[in-house]
Design a protein that fits this description.
alpha/beta; Uracil-DNA Glycosylase, subunit E; 6-stranded mixed β-sheet; 8 helices; 6 strands
């Protein structure tokens, strides 16, 4: 990993700006799930991962309580991640259909994965000040990816915060609306492609399907030109 991202990730991991989130992460890591009772949880903010030269970024809301908070990597070790990586493998973005741990040798092709919020919030509902506290980390991640062409936002909150970043950066007055599969061109040429979140609820209610997600990432690859 590039030294800039490496240093940023070290700062993210040490962050304690949000007392409510720090307490919740500690509680989750101490209580654990029955099936993970013998594991040592990561129990810290979860940084992004991928190549500094990535042309595609995939953005979620926050690490899962027993996924990223347990494993130390976004979308790793939870059902949303299982669905996501199966689709990424099918389109040739990931070298594996499974994302289980930091030591599973998973590699991404020209893709960086991160979350808007680096700590899991209670009930998956972050407070506005918590998103604000984390926004600087997210801004730095995106600015570090100099070859970035496309951002795929997973869920409306991730989409809204990406749009907010670009509105502030370029003083955009235009309104943007979330719709699965819709692409939005930013003033610097970057494309934001919105998607439903691959949560178990969305998958089980068929709001999103494997075919829909595969088609979306095929589109993302073409737009990103890799």
């Amino acid at each position: 990993m590039d030294i800039r991202l490496n240093n940023l990730n070290k700062t993210i991991i040490k962050c304690k700006k949000c007392p409510r989130l720090v307490r919740f992460v500690k509680t989750v890591s101490a209580k654990k799930r029955k099936q993970n009772i013998n594991e040592i949880y990561w129990g810290k903010p979860v940084p992004g991962f991928g190549d500094i030269n990535s042309k595609l970024a995939i953005i979620g809301l926050a690490p899962a309580a027993h996924g990223g908070t347990r494993t130390g990597r976004a979308f790793t070790g939870d059902k949303s991640g299982d669905f996501l990586f199966k689709c990424l493998y099918e389109v040739g973005i990931s070298n594996s259909p499974l994302s289980k741990s930091l030591n599973d040798n998973l590699k991404l092709k020209s893709t960086y994965i991160t979350n808007i919020l680096k700590c899991v919030p209670p009930e998956d509902k972050p407070l506005s000040n918590e998103i604000l506290n984390c926004s600087n980390f997210f801004d730095q991640e995106i600015l570090s990816l100099k070859k970035l062409r496309v951002i795929v936002t997973l869920g409306k909150v991730a989409f809204d915060n990406c749009i907010k970043l670009y509105k502030q950066k370029f003083d955009i007055k235009k309104k943007f609306f979330f719709k699965h599969g819709k692409s939005q061109l930013m003033p610097d040429g970057l494309i934001i492609l919105s998607s439903y979140h691959p949560s178990p609820r969305n998958v089980n209610t068929k709001l999103i399907s494997n075919k829909m997600m595969v088609n979306l990432f095929e589109k993302a690859k073409k737009l990103a030109k890799f």
